[in-house]
Amino acid sequence: VLESWSFLDTVESNFRPLVVIELAKGTKEETIEWFTKRIVDKKANGGAQLLIKPLVMENGVENIYLVGASHLRLLLGAETVGLVKECTDNSMRTFTYSSRKTFKDFADDNHNFLTMAECQYIIKHELENLRAKNEKMIPGYPQAKLYPGKSIVRRLLTSGILVQIFPLHDREELKKLRHSWYGRVKVGYQPLDDIRCYFGETIALYFGFLEYFTFALIPMAVIGIPYYVFAWEDYDKYVMFATFNLLWSTVILEVWKRICAILTYRWGTLLMKRQFEEPRPGFHGVLGINPVTGREEPVYSSLKRQLRIYLVSLPFVCLCLYFSLYVMMIYFDLEQWALDYHKENESNFSSLMLYVPSIIYAVVIEVMNRIYRYAAEFLTSWENHRLESSYQNHLILKVLVFNFLNCFASLFYIAFVLFDMKLLRQSLATLLITSQILNQFAESLLPYWFQRRYNRRMKKRTCSQKTDRDLSIAEQVNMEKEMGTYLGTFDDYLELFLQFGYVSLFSCVYPLAAVFAVLNNITEIYSDALKMCRVYKRPFAEPTANIGVWQLAFETMSVISVVTNCILIGMSPQVDALFPDSKMDLVLTVALVEHLLLAIKFIMAFVIPDKPRDIQMKLAKLEFESLEALKQQVRAFQMQL
Amino acid sequence: VLESWSFLDTVESNFRPLVVIELAKGTKEETIEWFTKRIVDKKANGGAQLLIKPLVMENGVENIYLVGASHLRLLLGAETVGLVKECTDNSMRTFTYSSRKTFKDFADDNHNFLTMAECQYIIKHELENLRAKNEKMIPGYPQAKLYPGKSIVRRLLTSGILVQIFPLHDREELKKLRHSWYGRVKVGYQPLDDIRCYFGETIALYFGFLEYFTFALIPMAVIGIPYYVFAWEDYDKYVMFATFNLLWSTVILEVWKRICAILTYRWGTLLMKRQFEEPRPGFHGVLGINPVTGREEPVYSSLKRQLRIYLVSLPFVCLCLYFSLYVMMIYFDLEQWALDYHKENESNFSSLMLYVPSIIYAVVIEVMNRIYRYAAEFLTSWENHRLESSYQNHLILKVLVFNFLNCFASLFYIAFVLFDMKLLRQSLATLLITSQILNQFAESLLPYWFQRRYNRRMKKRTCSQKTDRDLSIAEQVNMEKEMGTYLGTFDDYLELFLQFGYVSLFSCVYPLAAVFAVLNNITEIYSDALKMCRVYKRPFAEPTANIGVWQLAFETMSVISVVTNCILIGMSPQVDALFPDSKMDLVLTVALVEHLLLAIKFIMAFVIPDKPRDIQMKLAKLEFESLEALKQQVRAFQMQL
């Protein structure tokens, strides 16, 4: 099919496949020819100037293409996407081709200067920025309309001609990474820099946060154990524990920002300039002029979107919240029934029955969360947000509110309506442990098991003797294209967020929660690592400088937990006993303490700098340099006069 | 003295004096010669390339110099400081000399393209950036050390050779401004754009805030009047008023951000890039290398500064706070004594005596605030901050905390310890009104009176018949150099901040406070305008994009006022009567309402965007353009390959 190669092809001796493009079976010849021509065409002609090769499968069907690029093309692409790399003087700078010699490890023949993940990110960026010129439609598909500036790949995706684009795994590297990550049982840090090199910054930052969070929970867990073991119930000890927890959670969230700055500075993303955001693939509307860019693109009225949000989405979310509360009330009826049953006919069976409602409820919560997730995705997509980021924010807000209520409403009810601390402790334990087990199972182990079975069957079908390493590129592509797609870190963060809620909201009632959280997170690191390396297709690297809206979500949770813990301590019989004469004094004292704690929290968040001093200095130095460079330009111009 | 004029001088036909430099009397000839040479020298030789003329006074003493600049020099300077001006297509863009033709009202012979305040700001910037080359000291003054890169003007100032630098008033413009600002009694907005043209953005923004704040208080005042007139004491009405106040104060602070964005966009400062901050004039230390710039400059260990802050300043502030509380207790003793006296011998005199303690206390508070202010300035200066901004932040924090406690401690004591709502209302009224009268008197009217007297005496001494307009430049300079120096908007904002406290902290007890605040602010606008135009030297314009730390201060105050108002309402007998059975329920309800209000406040602050949609769009457009320009560069480079 492909005769017209890019001129760069002659320079490049060996073609290294980086990204796989899978077209729909039976795609018309003219479409393929047009698309591949656009990919290999010169930049000057509006092409992407990449290399592409068809992959001939055994059955002769030719719908899979491998995309690569010459070394020079990748370096120029690195400049376009604004990659930040380390210089020979150990400072981080935005890579430009003209200053390439000043970068560490750069050599014209060193093809490892850019990591494979970076190369794949560049290729993805170039493919997505392949834009229609004068084409009114995709050749061969009159219903797939195009207009000048429309991303070709996105239109191909939405019209179903392009099935998927995914980056290839590097079997060698992956094996090394697997070994250092979870290959041996060891105590130590994860190889975050290696993870970042292989999977990109977003995923590495998630694992960094997971690890940091686990370490940060250890003090809570250690302090919590004796409370459980010795069944301490003293007033002052409980207050101590809760106060420590509350201040500690503020400290760890502030310190995380600093660690995050250190990590992302080292990875270069802290300095990366934000790119202009194009409309998200699903965005649709009447063709108009974007007032910002002045370009033709679909336009959708902001008022219409607001109406959809406030008149449809908001009521729907409220309805779901109401439904969740309704289910909760059914749970309490069930609980009561089980208790009555246990009282009437006491037996081993009946005492086992006591736990059944909680377990059922925990399962129902998980199921409801998952169903609601689909509904939220559908609604947010229907709200037709122009930007991926605003889509994500609306989705996260919807999901967070529902999951928060769904998971914690019963606990709030038990604590502040029933005042039953024993039941609270028991429910908390059941919910926490059940949801952890369910999550680990549904998220990693089940998909892994399916993947293994599928792989084994695939191998048997081809040539059963080969190990992973000997697989030909065709076989590798064939295997990887059937793997599941990793949908991003959303679910992983959400899980941590809810766990943080279980640990902090009622920490003074159930100090053991932190212990379970730590244990869960240790296995979580391994199961998530397994998931990334074994179950899913390799995801495209996504540069990021922080964990975004999750920082805010965790901070909000820690504020709410101050309120709940103060109330819980105020309600405990030990504290009650301290104010025998006046309940008023008790409540006032609790309110005072709560306000003090909140004030301390805010002051601490304000006083602790978000970036360590040396990172601040390095950033200031870069800013100073760019200002100086600008001044030099002005001065040079003035001297000419 | 001056023979060597800049080459630009030949181009410029008329010298327009913009800035006055006053040297100490008896400054050595060689120093003057060196300094003026550096000012007129070419940029290429490290000079400022400005114009300077000595001003010969009647008594023959020659220590005052007038600084000006050619039109071309000012345009180039506008590019250096990064001024943002309006283009012919109504968008705001950073001015560059090469793109000058695209700007609105630009013409090579239009010398009003830059306002006089902008020209003066440029000259100030150029003078301050006049840096030592190889000079080891100021010629003639071996004790005034210099090192490469040290600002000459700052060293001249700190060593006392340079008495002051100030911009000249423009008598014509000032007269017009005075007329449109406060010349006639009228209902309407202030001429903010004119104020900004004459005094610069910082001062215009203060007046903008003052005006906005006054308008924003009117609804509170209007709703508050009937409460006073009809002596409404119903529970629900009070709650309504307080709730309205609390939400209203959040709304006005959020809306101010939007208005501020509109104003500063129009003025161009919203888009101005932050310049690199040089050390403040008073900063001293051992000569070392600045790690950011790599230049020689004084270096002072951050640890030493921290020690000074935490071991000296912090204890001192605490001591002052304690002292303030001590004075407060004396006030209460006095109050008690006056009450006893009134009871024993009831007469007109004794009932008048009842008000005496409050008035004395109000005066003492003002005096203490002013004394503490000096102490805080001394301490903060001794802490030796490198940057003016960090100096300002530490000073503002110190002053705010003390003033807050000093002004409101007695009210808190009366409200939450004595539970005396009548006394609270009375004290609040006395404090508010006394402090307002004192402030207006001490801030504007007294200096104005002194200034008038001085002016009259001066005029008599010279030639008594002349009006302001006919004054020669020498006489004008002579008069203006003796005027007081405006020390910035700090005190003005502080006054508004405390007023906001009086209005919002106890709004549900004394609804009339807003009325007094509105009345005060209307006269405040006039007296402040008078102060700016008549009493003080013209200040240098200072570009700014927002009101800085004051926004945070006002927001904090509005959070505190939620707490105080909820407690006050909870304590009122009307609310008490609603919960006859259980005080507990009352306290819990109040706490619940408080938390709800706080939550609503935070959500509102989060939901209301900080910038109006059209400003957001304009900013996005500019950002997009600069990204596109960068891409074009990269693309042009790639095409060459």
TrEMBL record, chains A, B:
Chain ranges of the Anoctamin transmembrane domain: 195-621
GO molecular function terms listed in the Swiss-Prot or TrEMBL record: chloride channel activity
Q: Which InterPro entries match?
A: Anoctamin, Anoctamin_TM
- Where is it mainly found? membrane
User: What is the protein's membrane topology class?
Assistant: Multi-pass membrane protein
Keyword Membrane listed: yes
A Pfam family recorded for this sequence = Anoctamin
Q: Where in the cell is it found?
A: Membrane
Q: Where are the transmembrane segments?
A: 212-232, 309-332, 352-372, 395-416, 496-519, 586-608
Which of UniProt's keywords are assigned here? Membrane, Transmembrane, Transmembrane helix
Name a single GO cellular component: plasma membrane
Q: Is Transmembrane helix found in the keyword set?
A: yes
- Tell me which domain of life the UniProt entry assigns to the organism this sequence originates from: Eukaryota
Q: Its family?
A: Belongs to the anoctamin family.
The name on file for this protein is Anoctamin
